[in-house]
Structure formats: C-alpha cells, structure tokens
Design a protein that fits this description.
Layout lengths: L10 H12 L3 H6 L6 E3 L7 E6 L9 H13 L2 E6 L3 H10 L8 E6 L3 H6 L3 E2 L11 H4 L8 E13 H7 L7 H4 L8 E4 L5 H14 L4 H10 L3 E3 L2 H8 L9 E5 L2 H7 L10 E18 L5 H11 L2 H11 L2 E2 L8 H6 L11 H20 L1
Parallel strand pairs: 2-3, 2-4, 7-8, 7-9
Antiparallel strand pairs: 1-3, 4-10, 5-10, 6-9, 6-10, 6-11
Helix pairs in contact: 3-14, 9-10, 10-16
Length: 369
C-alpha cells in the first residue's frame, strides 16, 4: 500500500526492527542482512534469485525476512533483496530494463500503477498456486495472472481525537466536511506527484466528484487552508498534531490507529487516532515474475510462497498492510483497531493509467500554481 503504500517509513521501520530484534534468536541474527539495499536472506546451494522491492521493504530481523529465510531453508533457493526506490521509480526502472530485468520477482507495484506495468510487459504472466484463496475483487485487477495480489490497504483521512476534542470540533464524516469552515487550517495532505498516499487521496476525490468536478472541490480545500507536503512522513510525523504538529487531520492509512496502539510509550486501551471511513481509497500491491528472468521456476516458487498464510500473516506488523490471502489470520491489534471499510473507493486501473499525469498536472496548477 509507496509508502508506501501502505508504507510506514523511517520512524516506523526503526520501531519495527527494534521490536522484532527483541525476540530474534542468535541463529536468526547471524543470517540477518547487514545491507538493506542488497540483502542475502540466507545461503543455500542451488538457485539464487533477486526480489526487487520498494524502499519501505522491511529491514533485517523482521518476520518477513525470517519467512524468506524459511523459504530458502525449505527450497534451497537463495533470495537477495534489491531496493529500487519508491513505487514510481521502481516501475520506471523496470520499464527501461523490460525483458532484461535487474531481478527475478518484483513486489510493490500497486493498483494505481498495475495497468501501466502490464502494458509495459515487465511481468511474465503466472497463475500462482494458492491464488484461489485471494478474493476475486483483488485478482480481477490482473485477471490473467499478469501479477499476483499480495496485500492491500486503505488510504484514509485520520484525525487526532484529543486535538479535535480540545478545539470543540466533531470529527469529519465525509470529504465534503473537509471543505467546511469548521475544519479551516486543520488538514494536511501529500503531493500526489511525489507521494503514493497523496495520489490515492486525489483519486478518492475524483471518485467522489467525477472527472469534471474534483477540481472545484480542491479549490474549496485550498480556500479552507489545506496544507500540502511532499510525503507521508512529513505529513504524519511533522505536521499531524498527534506527533507534535498543528494539523489534527492528515491523509494516512486505515492501519494507522493500530500502529499507534502497538508502539505507544504507555499501554493504551483505545486508539488515540480515528479514521474517516468514507474517505478511504483502496490500494492493492502486487508481486510478479519479471519477464526475462533466468530463473522462472524459482521465481514462481517465491510468488507461491508469498501468498501462503504463514508469509501473509507476517505482513501486517512489518509493513502495516492487510493480507491478500483470505485464510491468513490478523493479529488482534489489527482486528480491534484497524479500519477495513466494507466498501472502499477504487478507480479502474486503466482509467487511472490514461489520466494519471493529466490529473496530477491539473492538481498542481490548482493547488500549488
């Protein structure tokens, strides 16, 4: 979910590494990588493949990396991680090397980019074993196995419960509310040209107001004092009031509240932040076999492994996304505090692909112009 996705970078990653390291065995520590940008998960005789991933891939010592080490132990296939930047950068690199890829499997292309990735033929179609455990609303985004859904999440407006209460303001319940004078100077968002959640929020407004109406809505947000920053980290950890800023409304994720509960300095019985469910936009992340790989069978085995319940159950607490496999069980902190809307906003990938750059250019002129 480019931070992102769903992407908790920098501070979140550091917290997750610390948590995971507390329970790591000496043997696991010895096999953990020392270079996140190019990491040998384990060593084994036989095939060696490279997993190309976005910049928020979990650091060493986390459950995801331990699962990949188990994959190596069980299959004799060594996995190396190659970090290729954010989602957009990773896709651009893959397009330039299509047919002669830098790696064998790619993880992290989300539903806002999947149509472009398929059109660029960076993936070798493969119908993964276990795909029937993934709901069809996810697999239908790549119906012929062009890529495999691995996780999903929702970009949503979050709010600081205590800060709004102190202001005497009720939490907003809709996109319309955000343009109301009651919320003047309270919202911070990300630039969709540089941020995955920023793009998702723009798409939510296109979904709500239509291709000819979202522009007027953004004009009203500007008039109401919306603040724009480049990325999620700046919005959440610098401008959001819960982290010490002065904006009690921020574009973040449906999985942000359980994160705050899990990493609170003191034990919490309730989440300190809330989610405006009607604003949520669904992001789905995919993994695929890169066209031209010299290890197609090993790459396919890794795809199969990534959608097993065991691997899927490692994702939420490491990447703060939700498993694509419906059989995977969620940690109780997620079932209690996370928001997974019954109906999330989505725009057909082909429509996004045809309009993405135009919408971003229009947004830039309207909001930053």
């Amino acid at each position: 979910m480019s931070p992102t996705p769903i992407r908790f970078t920098a501070i979140a990653t550091a917290a997750l590494v610390t948590l995971a390291a507390c329970g790591e065995s000496d043997d696991a520590a010895e096999t953990a990588a020392t270079d996140v940008a190019s990491t040998d998960i384990a060593t084994a005789d036989g095939a060696s493949i490279t997993l190309v991933a976005y910049e928020s891939f979990p650091s060493e010592g986390t459950q995801v990396n331990e699962e990949l080490a188990r994959f190596t132990a069980e299959n004799g296939i060594e996995v190396e991680i190659l970090i290729a930047g954010d989602t957009g950068t990773m896709l651009s690199k893959a397009e330039l090397t299509a047919g002669n890829p830098e790696g064998d499997v790619m993880w992290g292309i989300d539903s806002t980019f999947i149509s472009r990735a398929v059109g660029s033929e960076i993936f070798e179609p493969y119908l993964a074993n276990g795909r029937d455990s993934i709901p069809t609303d996810l697999t239908d985004l790549a119906p012929d196995g062009e890529a495999t859904p691995v996780d999903f999440g929702d970009v949503c407006v979050n709010y600081d419960i205590a800060a709004l209460d102190e202001l005497g303001v009720e939490p907003p319940t809709s996109l319309d509310d955000l343009a109301d004078a009651a919320y003047r100077d309270l919202l911070v968002v990300q630039n969709p040209a540089s941020s995955s959640p920023g793009l998702a929020f723009l798409l939510a407004t296109v979904d709500e107001y239509g291709e000819d109406g979202w522009q007027d809505y953004w004009t009203s947000l500007v008039d109401n004092g919306v603040e724009v920053v480049d990325g999620w980290t700046a919005a959440y950890y610098e401008r959001f009031s819960y982290a010490g800023g002065n904006r009690p409304l921020v574009v973040s994720y449906g999985s942000s509240p359980p994160f705050e509960v899990l990493f609170a300095e003191t034990e919490l019985d309730a989440a300190p932040t809330g989610v405006v469910e009607s604003t949520c936009y669904r992001q789905v992340e995919f993994a695929g076999v890169l066209a031209g790989t010299e290890q197609p069978e090993a790459a396919q085995q890794l795809i199969d492994f990534m959608i097993t319940p065991e691997f899927q159950e490692a994702l939420p607490l490491d990447v703060f996304v939700f498993p694509a496999n419906a059989d995977a069980e969620l940690d109780p902190v997620f079932t209690e505090f996370a928001v997974i809307p019954e109906v999330s906003r989505e725009i057909e990938p082909g429509t996004i692909d045809a309009n993405r750059e135009t919408w971003i250019d229009e947004w830039t002129d309207l909001v930053l112009g």
